[in-house]
Amino acid sequence: MSEFNRPTAAGRSGAIPRYGMYAGPNYAGGRALGTNELPTAQDWQVRPIGFLDDVTRNHDINYTYIEKVYQGNDPASQSERNLALWQADKEMLGSMLSYQPANWLEAQYSDAVIKAFVAKALVDQQPALPIQPKRMVPLKPGQRNHAYFDFHCDDREPGLKRQALPSFI
């Protein structure tokens, strides 16, 4: 299937295009997942089409691990789950920000993912985590549009634990 006619998924603010075999909500191994369906070991065997797809695959693996481990409904469990999800998002964003896309389509999808996950962090995490934007960096000619999304979470904040996610790869 061509990257130009890959199906879309419903997101918070409309349709979200899918990319490769892993990028996009409820999508893993090149297949759409059902509501509340987690990817299977077979889904992880599908080879990513490139770096960007591999980054989203690792993000999906982290999310799947988190969904299996943090199943409690009590506030403490939910808080730990949210922190683990935030850590997975930070890892993906760091990888995407350091990558120089090889083509126009990768650049567009990478830019959209970065903007969407920064917005998600500001909406979902700001009340719970001390997310503080760093300085705005002026763009230089030829620099990617999202180069100014530079943020951090102060892990020294009392009560916050840094979440380390295992690698299954």
**Which geometry do the CA atoms define?**
globular
User: How many DSSP H or I helices?
Assistant: 4
Give the N-terminus to C-terminus distance in angstroms: 25 Å
SSE pattern, N- to C-terminal = EEEEHHHHEE
Order of strands side by side in the largest beta sheet? Answer: 1-2
> Would you identify the regions where 5 or more consecutive residues have pLDDT less than 50?
1-5, 144-169
State the share of residues found in helices, binned by percent. 40-55%
**Record field, number of beta strands:** 6
Rg, Å, rounded = 16 Å
Biggest β-sheet strands, sense, barrel: 2 strands, antiparallel
**Overall residue-averaged pLDDT value:** 75
Strand content: 5-15%
Q: By helix and strand content, what is the structural category?
A: alpha+beta
Question: Key terms for this structure?
Answer:
169 residues, alpha+beta, two-stranded antiparallel sheet, 41% helix, disordered N terminus, disordered C terminus
Note down, in words, how this protein is organized:
The protein is an alpha+beta fold and 169 residues long. Helix content is 41%, strand content 11%. The protein contains 4 helices and 6 strands, in the order E-E-E-E-H-H-H-H-E-E. The chain has helices spanning 41-44, 51-69, 75-98, 104-125, and strands at residues 8-11, 14-17, 27-28, 31-32, 131-133, 151-153. The strands form 3 sheets. Strands 1-2 form a two-stranded antiparallel ribbon. It has a two-stranded antiparallel ribbon with strand order 3-4. Strands 5-6 form a two-stranded antiparallel ribbon. The protein is globular.
